[in-house]
Amino acid sequence: MSVVLRPRVEEVQVTANKNPPQEILDILPAPIKSIFLKNWEKNTSIEEIRIRKSRPLILRLAQGEVFHHDFVISDQLFENTLRIISKNSLYALETELRNGFITINGGHRVGFVGEAVTERDHIKTQKNIASLNIRIARSVAGCGAEVIPHMIDMPNKSILHTIIVSPPRCGKTTLLRDLVRSISYGVAKHNLAPLQVGLVDERSEIAGCFHGIPQLDVGPRTDILDRCPKDQGMIMLIRSMGPEVIATDELGTPKDVDAVRQVVNAGIKFIATVHGDSFEQLNKRPYLKELLAMGIFQRYIFLNKFGIGTWVKDILNSQGESILKFKRAKP
């Protein structure tokens, strides 16, 4: 049971990402930049640059990776990369070190790990950084175009409470971003007027904010609460911004679930993502089981990976029944 509901990733990227992001080039030392550019000429689907001290450089693609076994990152090259990224002040980035990532101009994210410094069982900071993961931010505008009709609540001129479900790296955040963008602009084709959206972007992955400004298009009527815990952020948005829709990424704790209940009880529509691959699997999770039993989510969108693209396996209603009107084979 499957239906192709989004453009293939490579088709979008060929037209939208012909040139490598300048913000990425600006933080790469010359030796790594040279390798990156040579690979970009062959394949613009590079998603991550993995830089590990004393180990080979790896470029992760939408499908597979390029393992540069003959290019081992020296201590000097690694430290030089760190200096460029941190603008010579790594240890001034106390919050970023504690969270393990920094968002740079363009919405791209650099993750870093090393030796954790703890205090009372909490991470205070990091030292001896030894691994970097540079994640290239991309929007795929229009990837939710055939999904959103299934989410519209026409009698109430709004949308239905929706959860997007998939294993990791299958496009949950990409789809969520495009749905938020569409709802914020409005979808004239389906008579959906623009709605005010509150977005809790705990890890700066959805809007890619840099100094508070979204680097990725999430729509003109979207208010973003960046780097805020989801449960606290949802309540703050209710109190401060009067949203008609609240969206967030990766529900994962009992506190998140409590906040969702408050959002729904306030009459606000809700969109989120969660890891999983089936309705039955979601029902086995204690923190989600109650929400499922209450029938809060009115649409379940299940994604999966196919080649270097993503496809929608199914869309279910609150009872777990498929609502797709037509079926196609995998792309």
Keywords, separated by commas or semicolons:
single chain, about 325 residues, alpha/beta, Beta-Lactamase, Rossmann fold, 2 domains, 10 helices, globular
Describe this structure in words.
With 331 residues, this protein is an alpha/beta fold. The chain folds into two domains: 18-135, Beta-Lactamase (2-Layer Sandwich); 148-316, P-loop containing nucleotide triphosphate hydrolases (Rossmann fold, 3-Layer(aba) Sandwich). The protein is built from ten helices and 17 strands. The strands form four sheets. It has a seven-stranded mixed β-sheet, with helices on both faces. Strand 1 and strand 2 (56-61) form a beta hairpin. The longest helix has 14 residues, at 172-185. The protein is globular. It starts with 8 loop residues before the first helix and ends in a 15-residue tail after the last strand.
